[in-house]
Amino acid sequence: MDKSWEKIVNQKESNWFGTKEAKVIAENVLIYQRNIGGWPKNIQMQKPITKEKKEQLLLLKKSNKDVTTDNGATYQEMLYLSKVYRFRPDERYKKAFLKGLNYLLKAQYNNGGWPQFYPLKKGYYTHITYNDDSMVNILNVLKEIKDSTNYFSIQPSKDIIKKVEIAFNKGIECILKTQYKQNGVLTAWCAQHDRNTLLPVKARAYELPSLSGAESANIVLLLMRIEKPTKEIKQAIKSAVSWLKKTKITGLREDRIYNDKGKVISKKMVLDKNAPPIWARFMELDDNTPFFCDRDGIKKATLAEIGEERRNGYAWYKTFPQEVLDKYPSWKKKHIKKDKPTDSFNVIVAKDGSGDYYSIQEAINNSKAFPDKRITIFIRNGIYSEKVKLHKWNPKISLIGESKENTIITNNDYFSKIGLGRNSTFYTSTLLVEADNTILKNLTIKNTAGDIGQAIALTINSNEVAVINCNLLGNQDTLYTSGNGKQFYKDCFIEGTTDFIFGNATAYFYNCQINSKKDSYITAASTNKETKFGYVFSNCKLTAEKNVTKVYLGRPWRIHAKTVFINCILHKHIEPKGWHNWSKKEAEKTTFYAEFKNSGKGYQPKKRVKWSYQIKDSDVKKYTLKNVLGKHKKSSKKEWYEIL
Asked: Smaller CB count within 10 Å for the chain: N or C?
């Protein structure tokens, strides 16, 4: 037969497996099997065996050298014997198959993984091996047997099936435990993992610790075949699918040149917008960047940088992970639709799939409109790269992060990127709040566009909104306090360059750090004429980056701007004049810019512009939290900001 051993084994089961030709090959398979039950790899079983060769192989029966599951070894021989046995029920084939199965069971580590060689061979061969689908092949065999399908014509005893089921479950547990977490988020798998630490490890010189598109895809396909997946298995699949979507490469095609014998003698990557998606064999553990290695073990950025021997003799890219993405929608429809939060008023968002939702927006979108009580969305640590919007019909929602430092919502829209005309700024927000009675707590909200113009991190355009212990990070226009409502900021860190706190709302900042990143303006209030209070900063600290020496407390975006600083510490970067009129001479008569008993080198009341004010002791009581934000000013009822 003019086919490779792999193609012969994997061809569709047909009457050919009952022919004399198939029987001759089966006899070869029996001869190559070692007494321990496994087979060596890379043997073309279909090739005739001479008398001398047969004698040599019989002498090797007792040897355990080179017995493996690598490159399809043992798995392929068992599958072939099963196909022949269906037509020729020879007890020798059954005995050899069952001996092979026993070998697989013996080779398993207690943690559920399998080494590349068993008995163990020194070196990287002891690692838990996903490389070339070694472990996946084993688990596929065990799954068919434990499920008592008709895939294999040979069925072991019930006692053996029980052992197979235990081994399969341990193997799946190992897969779940070895799934790599990147910045706290489950991703994919390496081709090999340390048998003790379970972490990605090196194999050959050019097989460095990495994430593997090829091996990971077949692991996911195996997990998707499990009929009743646990919550952990579902998480693993969802996370891996997200990773595969993230790491697919488009617009690139691999071209190969072959010699007369069909051997690849050259490979090169070509730009092609119509090329199907591909995935790199090796990707960096920290950021998924593809890399390539020659036998010297030195990472290269492109395939063209390594020698021809490794470049042409190794599969550096794969297309078949697309099969996972193609099958995922139907799997998700079958298994994920039942995953609804048990308590719709308390839900969890987690990037690693351990919560009720993967994304913050998904959790918001599935929240009850106009709820009769508060909905708490707890967000576990992770980097959430998404634009988030709390709609008007989503009041009484609390977005609570696991920690301010590590629960990060980030996006990078900016004015010219949006490109919607003069109002493009207002579309740039990373987080937009249009819902009343919102609480944001323990979050970092970032716009990472850089110093490139207007780019909002947080917009609040609603009433009775509290922002507690949050980082608001950006450059120009970091925080937009929009609308006519009241807002409360407590224990926050707010940074920016120009007008990085702006808008017309009444906003009270308590115990916040306001950090300037360059010489410019902190506030740009646009307080409505009839509004009693604009911005009140109480017990805040105004700081700056190095080399920042000239920062104004504010300038009027609209001429009735109101901004006061009370008991704040002003560092030396604050401009002695304090305030700027934004070239609006009339604003000097209509704004209300004032301070009360500030301190620090930046507090120079005698040098302030003449049209600003120093609040008297008798007037400062107007700026209590209750008087500025309260709605029950003359009663003992709890205010909205007191129930945080």
From this structure: C
